[in-house]
Amino acid sequence: MDAPVRKLRVATTSLAGCFGCHMSLLDLDEGLIGLLERIELDRSPLTDTKEVGECDVGIVEGGVCNAENVEVLREFRRRCKVLVALGACALNGGLPAQRNVLSLPLLLQEVYRAEPGAEHGRIPDDPELPLPLDRVHPLHEVVRIDHFIPGCPPPAEAIGAVLGSLLAGEARPLDPALIHFD
Amino acid sequence: MSAPTFLLDGRPVAFAEGQSILQAAVAAGAYIPHLCFHPDFAPHGSCKVCTVRVGGREAAACTTRAVAGAVVESDTPALNDERRALVQMLFVEGNHFCPSCERSGDCKLQATARDLGMTTPHYDHFYPDRPVDASHPELLLDFNRCILCSLCERASREVDRKNAFALSGRGIRTRLIVNSRTGRLADTDVRATDRAVHVCPVGAILPKRRGFATPLGQRTFDLKPISAVADSSAEIEEG
Q: B65 forms bridges with which residues in the sheet?
């Protein structure tokens, strides 16, 4: 009898993202069944676990827009042997980074003061709220990233291909046919 | 007497006297990655993406004359690494957000990046604060996406005879300007049918009210990589 194969432990998270990349991961459809025989999930929106443990692979969607994002990303880097940046926002800030040419005070004024509906004209200051950064950053500007999967969202096949190559213990470059920036 | 030839990655390419390596390659349907070159216009030699190795040194294929018997290397891992770095620098110097760009799938910057296997912009982003000029009734001019190839400048001067565009400043401060008293596109005589509009390889100059006539995923370079498109220099029309 073959010895049981150790499963790859994988954590995932969405920082300044929309969870669209996680939806694309679910688009692996029946491919997920085979995949779940070879990986086990640690912290992930799919497990609702809040702490990240020691992992083989961390998959991070979204850019870095606030102090909590920085903390989570650094924790992922510490705990995961291999870190994968997933999707346009993780790679270049994406849609949230459209604010990068505007000053943060101006933005907060515009959103919370000028619009009467939101927070009764008050800029939210609950101490539990993470402080926004002056700019949205791609992941690679904050920590070292091992693999990048572009796309908004990346095609499920691209996510499958990268996970497949990690399971095989190889670093195969992504097939250009699976590289999409839109 | 048959035309003289040089060797491009081991394959003979015929050329006419006075042609550049890139002119001859494009005419022969051989692909050397390039962004600021167009066979109808004098070379600009600025993007350097067409850099090849010839005679033991690197040179821009668009500004280097073809010589009989020359041995030209182009599709090598080392040169493609350099090209990828150049393209990555173009991505971080501007604001290239493909998901919200109407040119996505028809964009030569994007297609070249894909073909070179670029998965990340790699460098720190500049996020420059550049304006959008929506003053023209038919056209949108988005400076965020301009890669300073100068093709619009050359086409406007040499074909349209309007001199509507120019590159101003030097080095990192180089920028595209509009040649009108106000600096606005509406105050030029540029029309949507002008060559300068259609020669833009990226989404900097776009016709208005033509959004998503062809869905994402079904556009020119979604169907075929730029290296396999027969005339990689041809203008790409949406739809």
A: B20
Query: How many helices and strands in chain B, by DSSP H and E?
Result: 6, 10
Q: Which domain holds residue A87?
A: 8-98+133-178
Give chain B's domains with CATH numbers: 5-75 (3.10.20.740), 80-210 (3.30.70.20)
Per the omega criterion (within 30 degrees of 0), is the bond before A153 cis?
yes
**Inter-chain CB proximity B98 and A181 less than 8 Å:** yes
Best B92, B95, B108, B127 residue to mutate vs chain A (most A CBs within 10 Å) = B127
Residue type, B4: P
- At position A65, the amino acid (one-letter code) is C
Q: Is A110 a member of any domain? A: no
pLDDT tens digits, one per residue of A89-105: 999 999 999 999 999 99
- pLDDT (average), residues B22-44: 96
Chosen for mutation from A99, A101, A181 (greatest number of chain B CBs closer than 10 Å) is A181
Q: Which helix (H) or strand (E) holds B152?
A: helix B151-158
Element (H, E) at A69: helix A67-79
- Contact criterion met (CB < 8 Å) for A182 and B105: yes
> Cα–Cα distances in Å, from B193 out to B29, B197, B206, B208?
27, 7, 11, 12
Secondary structure letter of residue B27 according to DSSP: H
**Which two structure tokens, joined as six digits, stand for B117?**
């296997």
Q: How far apart are CA B78 and CA B68, in angstroms?
A: 25
